[in-house]
Design brief:
The protein has about 170 residues and is mainly alpha-helical. It folds into two domains: about 1-110, no CATH class; about 115-170, Hypothetical Protein Yqey, Chain: A, domain1, CATH 1.10.1510. It is about 55% helix and about 0% strand.
Length: about 170
Amino acid sequence: MSQEKMVEDIVRQVMQSMIQTPGSAAASAPAVSGKGLDPLRDYPMAEKRPELLKSPSGKTLSDITLDNVVSGAIKSEDVRISPETLRMQAEIADGIGRNQFADNLRRAAELTAIPDARILEIYNALRPYRSTKAELFAIADEMENKYNAKINAAFVREAADVYQRRNRLRAE
């Protein structure tokens, strides 16, 4: 196998692993999930339903080749996971009874709309003693209203309440 082919295979494997549910038990899954994807029929999606998988920029798995990477036709944004892919993976996870993992995937899908730099700011603001309750509530409002990240906004509001009860807020 040529070195170029080996690198291309590695890139494809990495891309597939990014969109597969780790440690899936699809073989023991219930027959059909509630919204149309069948874990037995459709998982792993990269192998069984690749036509459904697209990056946020619209690239498909078949577009991601070593030649395209080397030529510059594939950029870093072309290998990011899309919120739609995360939601489909959540549906598969629900279909095999991994509901908590599915919820995590839905939260991740929401977070794709928030710029990376802002995610890091929010992360730092959520550390104990870094923010006031009002600041955390303002972050939650921003997440909900600007980015439509309602699940994550609820999480930040819950964290603000917990921090208040445990005396972990920054003094005003």
